[in-house]
Design goal:
Blueprint (H helix, E strand, L loop, with lengths): L19 H11 L9 H12 L2 E2 H11 L3 H8 L7 E2 L9 E6 L2 H5 L2 H11 L5 E6 L11 E3 L2 E3 L4 H10 L12 H6 L4 H8 L3 H12 L11 H9 L5 E7 L8 H8 L1 H15 L1 E8 L4 H16 L7 E6 L9 H8 L23 E5 H5 L1 H7 L1 H5 L9 E8 L5 E6 L4 H8 L9 E5 L8 E2 L23 E6 L4 H15 L5 H14 L6 H14 L3 H5 L2 H9 L8
Parallel strand pairs: 1-2, 3-4, 7-8, 7-10, 8-9, 11-15
Antiparallel strand pairs: 3-5, 5-6, 11-12, 13-14, 13-15
């Protein structure tokens, strides 16, 4: 077209054009029904599972079907780690992916060596080996995941056998099913609540007397949360956070693999007492076997309900640790990038789809039936060092018997290891521990007699969070583990706020140097704590600060 000529309207269509073949393929996979905006991530999973990646023409076709702009679909797809975007001349990923965990417990157990051996042994072009953050199986370190099939205490030989057999599906856990749960008295409490509305007040009082707090990390009193929600205008919703991505945490997985209906009954009681019209369960993508279990048991529950049920939606995460934050989880449930919201307003006031939302961790709801049937005193009578209640500790690292431990609140790390975990692993002496996962800070052996519970660790610059205890020994270095944690946070930062996005990356770079610039790192930490939007950036520097504070011998030659 020469200068001065006018382009005819419609002669050169603008934007991404829909490929008819891609449109037919996407329509076949997701259906030609009216697609819901909040289920965008579910549709992306359908495409990823079917094609092994997300191809540009398919994303454009999906945007067309959903009446969204392609950029809206691309920005969501590119946010989550478990989606493989293939655009332009990019080569698609290998047909099979083997993921090797490189977070704290797996790093101590030789995860890097395992990844290196697999990279050398796996057939090029047929198998992709990826280093990934925690996959929620810290007690089985080192862990590899072949497709969706996780293998603990992994060796190159064991992984190669699964690859050769194409054993890529996660087994469904042998859990208490619907029939067995009902036979054991399950859902009787729910029936009582449905027929006696006045029982709701009594249940809230029981939770209060027992001292049940949120077990996802924040520790907010559950009874207070229920009362706050009841005061909000209807309609109300509920979200259940099963996205335990904190390195060192795996208690929710263990609870669900054993008895998912106990959590279901707790959530249905909460929904009835608080008045929630719908429930949205957000499950981390790494728990493929549990997803199949929950799908099966929810279908059984809905086919023969013990009482009228609210809407129940099971949603699949896509590999974003930040979605463990309640407002980021809500953004993800709405089909968006999982970025935390500025607060106020709080999710109890303006949550999912703009409605007041009761946000709970799965294990918190798991306790409801037990507390009501057995009484608050049966729970509160446990506890040590002036604390009350029971806690599930996810214990991993250099102990003889790692796993989920049900122990009194306020127990000390030393007693937890010696009496519940068989002591330290042979040849290892206690050197230090993370009391609350990667973000909870690090304490040395001399502080192994501090009670482990909410509010007991703050004076030491730490917190218990979801009670993920990672124990390390004299064969490890606190500064190396702190760097591992900081790299995790840099990888998982959503990028919304500069202090977290730049701070975690800059800190990881500085901590990788032979000599730490401690004054600069402290200044950086202060900025991250003061100005980050959510807990990821605010807590990311805890391990770094603790390493400098409690392990000065590791920096004595600098």
């Amino acid at each position: 077209m020469t200068r001065g000529q006018k382009k005819k309207s419609g002669a050169f269509p603008k934007g991404h054009q829909v490929d008819p073949r891609a449109l037919a393929r996407v329509s076949d996979l997701v259906g030609d029904r009216s697609l819901k905006r909040d289920e965008l991530i579910e549709y992306l999973h359908v495409l990823q599972d079917a094609e092994g990646c997300l191809q540009g023409p398919h994303l454009v076709a999906l945007a067309h079907l959903m009446r969204l702009s392609p950029v809206e679909v691309f920005e969501v797809a590119s946010f989550y780690h478990h989606f493989d975007l293939v655009t332009g001349d990019d080569a698609p990923p290998a047909p099979l992916t083997v993921r090797v965990c490189d977070s704290l417990s797996c790093a101590m157990a030789g995860g890097e060596q395992l990844a290196g051996a697999l990279e050398a042994a796996m057939p090029k072009g047929a198998v992709r080996v990826q280093r990934v953050p925690c996959v929620g199986r810290c007690a089985e370190a080192p862990v590899a995941v072949v497709g969706q099939n996780a293998i603990g205490a992994a060796t190159p030989e064991a992984v190669a056998q699964l690859v050769e057999k194409r054993s890529t599906q996660a087994p469904i856990p042998d859990a208490v099913d619907y029939q067995a749960y009902c036979a054991g008295g399950g859902y009787q409490l729910l029936k009582r609540v449905m027929t006696d509305p006045a029982l709701g007040d009594s249940i809230i009082d029981t939770l209060d007397e027992a001292g049940l707090r949120g077990l996802g990390g924040a520790g907010f009193p559950s009874a207070r949360k229920w009362r706050i929600l009841r005061e909000q205008a209807a309609p109300r919703l509920m979200t259940i956070n099963l996205d335990e991505g904190e390195p060192g945490t795996f208690k929710d997985r263990v609870v669900l693999e054993a008895d998912p209906h106990r959590m279901f009954e707790g959530m249905l009681i909460a929904a009835q007492v608080v008045g929630c019209d719908a429930i949205y369960i957000y499950l981390r993508d790494e728990y493929a076997g549990i997803r199949a279990l929950l799908e099966r048991e929810l279908a059984a529950l809905e086919a023969n309900p013990p009482a009228p049920l609210p809407e129940i939606h099971l949603r699949r995460g896509a590999g974003a640790y930040v979605c463990g934050e309640e407002s980021a989880l809500i953004e993800s449930l709405e089909g968006k990038r999982g970025m935390p919201r500025l607060r106020p307003p709080y999710v109890a006031q303006l949550g999912l789809f703009g409605r007041p939302t009761l946000a709970h961790n799965g294990e918190t709801l798991w306790w409801v039936r037990d507390l009501v049937e057995q009484g608050a005193a049966s729970f509160a009578q446990h506890g040590e060092n002036g604390r009350k209640g029971l806690r599930r500790f996810s214990v991993s690292g250099r102990v003889a018997k790692p796993g989920v431990v049900l122990a009194p609140a306020g127990i000390t790390l030393r007693k937890l290891v010696d009496e519940y975990c068989g002591g330290m692993a042979p040849g290892h002496d206690l050197y230090g521990y993370f009391p609350g996962g990667a973000s909870g800070g690090i304490l040395p052996e001399r502080l192994a007699d501090v009670p482990l519970d909410f509010d007991t660790l703050h004076e030491h610059g730490c917190f218990i969070g979801s009670a993920a205890v990672v124990v390390f020994s004299n064969r490890d270095r606190a500064r190396d583990l702190a760097l591992n944690a900081m790299r995790f946070f840099a990888h998982e930062s959503c990028g919304k706020c500069t202090p977290c996005r730049v701070g975690t990356s800059k800190a990881a770079m500085l901590m990788a140097q032979p000599v730490w610039d401690q004054p600069l790192l402290k200044e950086l930490s202060d900025a991250m704590k003061d100005a980050s939007i959510c807990g990821l950036g605010q807590a990311a520097s805890n391990p770094m600060e603790c390493a400098m504070r409690y392990f000065p011998e590791e920096f004595s030659n600098e």
